[in-house]
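[Discussion] Sanity-checking designs against the backbone

I'm trying to build intuition for which residues belong where. Below is a structure token string of 295 positions. I'd appreciate it if someone posts a full sequence so I can compare it with mine line by line.
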């Protein structure tokens, strides 16, 4: 991403982490910026080699990376790598007199590009919509901005796509397309990028849906036990109800807390009500059988 007034900002996302229970996404990024600074003048830089600035010089100049704000990051969870690479790309030499020595070549900061790159690790808030869990798809939004200073106008403009070179599957999610867009105001320049994530539901099928269905099938099979064995029918259906309830508690502990009902809650409610209906049927049948047996 390029800023019209001298800032180029490119982000390469290295990896994702912690994208499940706490609704927090951890990003490790290599973020870079390219800019021009008309206040600077460089003396005799090398044309055919990397002109890497010393740590002291890097601290003395204005670097956009020091002014970035991760708007939806968790406070205290933005960690910068101590090593930052800042270098000059000499392009256009300042016009001097013909008798000037080559060692006195000057390159103005207004026409010669500066570039800095640094790795950072950030924890972002990301609200997952889990109503359709475990068949949900979510899109996390990450916002980076740079605030305007007095007498300075900064704007982001698009200069290439964000590159994600982490694993395609992270935890229970498949990492999809990454989109980005920019917006600029009089107070700040904003970069927003979105990461699309699709949950892989294989684990839930094996640990939730299939066991629940088998338990319900076991409870339903108690209807075929002989009528005389009322205690066996009741104990079998009651055991199924207890196991399903325990299974629900275990699954809810791994889900984000929500104020809305999820479809998986309806799945469990349906099975619980069916087992309760079976238990009620056994009780009524036993009462009717005892009344029938009375002389």
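Best answer:
Here's mine. Compare freely.
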């Amino acid at each position: 991403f390029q800023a019209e007034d001298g800032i180029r900002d490119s982000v390469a996302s290295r990896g994702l982490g912690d994208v499940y229970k706490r609704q927090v996404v951890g990003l490790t990024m290599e973020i870079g910026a390219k800019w021009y600074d008309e206040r600077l003048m460089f003396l005799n830089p090398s044309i055919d080699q990397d002109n890497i600035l010393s740590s002291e010089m890097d601290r003395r100049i204005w670097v956009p990376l020091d002014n970035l704000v991760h708007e939806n990051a968790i406070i205290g969870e933005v960690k910068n790598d101590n090593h930052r690479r800042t270098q000059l790309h000499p392009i256009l030499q300042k016009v001097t007199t013909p008798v000037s020595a080559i060692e006195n070549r000057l390159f103005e900061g207004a026409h010669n590009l500066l570039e800095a790159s640094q790795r950072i690790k950030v924890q972002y808030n990301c609200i997952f919509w889990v109503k359709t869990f475990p068949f949900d798809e979510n899109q996390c939004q990450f916002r980076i901005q740079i605030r305007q200073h007095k007498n300075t106008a900064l704007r982001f403009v698009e200069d290439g796509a964000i590159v994600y070179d982490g694993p395609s599957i992270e935890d229970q999610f498949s990492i999809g397309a990454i989109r980005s867009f920019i917006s600029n105001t009089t107070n700040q320049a904003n970069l927003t990028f979105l990461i699309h994530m699709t949950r892989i539901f294989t684990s839930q099928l094996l640990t939730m849906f299939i066991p629940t269905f088998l338990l319900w099938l076991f409870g339903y099979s108690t209807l075929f036990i002989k009528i005389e064995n009322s205690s066996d029918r009741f104990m079998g259906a009651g055991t199924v109800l207890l196991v399903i309830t325990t299974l629900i508690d275990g699954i809810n502990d791994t889900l984000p807390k929500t104020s809305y009902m999820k479809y998986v809650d309806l799945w469990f409610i349906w099975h619980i009500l069916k087992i309760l209906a079976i238990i009620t049927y056994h009780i009524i049948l036993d009462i009717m059988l005892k009344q029938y047996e009375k002389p």
